[in-house]
Amino acid sequence: MAERAIVSSQSVERRRVAFALMLALPIAVLWWATAQAEPMRLTPPSVESAALNDPVSGPVVTAPAQTPPPTLEKKRRYNVVVLGDSLGDGTWAGLYHVLRKDNRFNVVKKSRVATGFSRQDYYDWNEAAREIAAEASIDIAVVVMGTNDRQPIVKDGKRHALFDPEWRDIYRARVDDFTATLKASGARIYWMELPVMRSPRFGADMEQFNEIFEDRAVANGVAFVKTEGLATGADGGYTAYGEDRFGRTRLLRAEDGIHFTMAGYELLGDRIADAILADLEGTTLVNAEPQADRPVTLSVADDAASELEKAERYDMADRRPGRSDDWLWLGATN
């Protein structure tokens, strides 16, 4: 009897084990299928959250938005408006001489000496651009700016030193505002790179301005016209004498080492005209000998004596350190 009881007990135990295995097998199969369908669920929740949800360390660098320059629409006549400072005055004259035989272009001077972006209290170029655009259509805008801007900027009662980070932020914003105003008028903009200067210190500052202008030109979809190789020596540095646009050796720079003679301004005008014509028709202007059949009254000097006469006409109260046309201030330009 005892043996039969033991056998019976073992038989019951085997049935229990078999029943448990039968229940466990479907559960194991279901677990395996779920793991194959969602492999990420095998990762502990804490590790998964850390891998997928934690922010990536380090700064996120985004490329600045770049707007391509608008194409020039084919027209019978274009208003080419030159805006800028005293260097812009001369560039207008040079561009006028270069394009005066091409009846498609009407070259208009809207530059103003002793101005820039640093002193909006003295002259606000953004407001001036709106007024100029309201007076007449601007098909092409040529901008020459910067030689008078080696000055602190005062904004909201706070003074910002030249090239300090806050100064740069304000200056860039003013360049952008000015550019946006011209673009809103429908103008295609050509921003001229400032040329090489005689004074190393002054020239180094102009290079910093060129960096700002080129950066904003790329960001704002503006053509940046390089002046590399114009009125420079064999080493690329400053020279007072050199070849004019007809290959003749001439005096190219004024006595102050900043401005140009008419022969020099024609070189600048020729470079800008090439850029405009390349965009317009894919060709360059063929230079012709200048003729006197269409005289032009220039507001820039062709020699140092005239420059000094112009200097004497300025009100002494208007002289501010940092202006390229302040002949009495010899500090940083020598």
Q: Approximately how much beta-strand content do the residues carry? A: 5-15%
| Count of DSSP strands | 9
Overall radius of gyration: 36 Å
Q: What ranges have pLDDT less than 50 throughout 5 or more consecutive residues?
A: 1-7, 29-64, 283-320, 326-334
> Helix count, per DSSP?
8
Characteristic key phrases:
334 residues, 5-stranded parallel beta sheet, 8 helices, 9 strands, disordered N terminus, disordered C terminus
Tell me about this structure:
It is a single chain. With 334 residues, the chain is of the alpha/beta class. The chain is 42% helix and 11% strand. The strands form 3 sheets. The protein has a 5-stranded parallel sheet, sandwiched between helices. A two-stranded antiparallel ribbon has the order 4-5. A two-stranded antiparallel ribbon has the order 8-9. The chain is globular, with a radius of gyration of 36 Å. The N and C termini lie far apart (126 Å). Residues 1-7, 29-64, 283-320 and 326-334 have low confidence and may be disordered.
